[in-house]
Write a structure and sequence with these properties.
It is built from seven helices and no strands. It is mainly alpha-helical and 129 residues long. It has two domains: 62 residues, Orthogonal Bundle (434 Repressor (Amino-terminal Domain)), CATH 1.10.260; 56 residues, no CATH class.
Length: 129
């Protein structure tokens, strides 16, 4: 798939039925955008950044075709909270919050509300692996 074809796929993925609607949403004159999408003129990375943000696709995919079109979504923090509660039903809430804060800080899952230098050692009398 060529770059202009990926641009069209990105636009369609974002729900813009026509190039004219996409051009208006992005703030690019229609003839300019249409040339980018139909392949009659290329587009620079500065425009690719704008298009990838507006159409919610990966910049690298749009510009080169490498990798997936979309970012792989991380689980929502509420899902992680629920999974911790399910896996550790007998652990006191205070310890669950400490583990969650450590996981968030260790793996970049969001703001750690209770930063920990290292993982808590015990959970309900047993060591977590």
């Amino acid at each position: 798939m060529d770059k202009h074809e990926r641009l069209r796929a990105a636009r369609e993925h974002a729900g813009f039925a026509t190039a004219a609607l996409a051009a208006e949403a992005v703030g690019v004159p229609y003839p300019t955008y249409a040339g980018h999408e139909n392949g009659s003129s290329g587009f620079p990375s500065s425009k690719g950044e704008i298009y990838s943000r507006k159409f919610k696709v990966r910049f690298e995919w749009l510009m080169s075709g490498r990798g997936p079109m979309l970012e792989i979504a991380a689980p929502a923090l509420s899902e992680i909270d629920a999974e911790i509660a399910r896996l550790l039903p007998d652990v006191p809430e205070e310890e669950k919050r400490a583990y969650l804060a450590w996981l968030r800080s260790r793996f970049g899952l969001g703001d750690a509300t209770e930063p920990q230098a290292s993982a808590p050692a015990q959970a309900g009398g047993r060591r977590l692996k």
